[in-house]
């Protein structure tokens, strides 16, 4: 079974294959179980529940839809129309506020440049429960050396829910969502 080179010697790779073969056959003959590599831990992908998958898909669709709608209409009109869809959207997308925020951030990272801070804040405003207090969508700006940067975030009771901490930004626009007691 051994093949040799022209000079009558076996190659290194053939010797390695032969020694590996001997290890495996030796383990089989002796009746021991041989582990070639350690068993890998199940990835996070498989640990998600069906409810998590539903939440991720629904939030992803909401972000893509909001991106398309934002290209087609001005922001105040989009917020008005989205406000009419709040109740049906909250029925379809169930979960705690923390899980909804997790899903928005997770899908936003995977959507890349399509998902901006404004889109994430708009989707969060649509899906988050307003019974715990009013939600405030804020757009702020900051000046850097050469540019003027804008950022959007969503806050409830002074705590930022979506978007980076807004300490460096000067708020330009504040929109509050009506609380559930008024709707």
In terms of topology, how is this protein built?
Layout: H1 12-30, H2 44-47, H3 50-72, H4 75-84, H5 86-92, H6 97-111, H7 117-127, E1 135-143, E2 148-156, E3 159-162, E4 170-177
Antiparallel strand pairs: 1-2, 1-4, 2-3
Helix pairs in contact: 3-6, 3-7, 6-7
Structure description:
The protein starts with 11 loop residues before the first helix and ends in a 6-residue tail after the last strand. The protein has a 4-stranded antiparallel β-sheet, with helices on one face. Residues 24-28 have low confidence and may be disordered. The protein has helices spanning 12-30, 44-47, 50-72, 75-84, 86-92, 97-111, 117-127; strands spanning 135-143, 148-156, 159-162, 170-177. It has 7 helices and 4 strands. Strand 2 (148-156) and strand 3 form a beta hairpin. It is globular. Helix content is 49%, strand content 16%. With 183 residues, the protein is an alpha+beta fold. The protein has one domain (49-177).
- Work out the strand percent: 15-25%
Query: What is the number of beta strands?
Result: 4
Number of helices: 7
Q: What is the overall pLDDT average?
A: 79
Report the principal-axis shape.
Answer: globular
Please give the largest β-sheet: 4 strands, antiparallel
Terminal CA distance: 83 Å
Structural class by helix and strand composition: alpha+beta
What is the chain-wise order of helices and strands?
A: HHHHHHHEEEE
The radius of gyration over CA amounts to 28 Å
In the residues, how many domains can be counted? Answer: 1
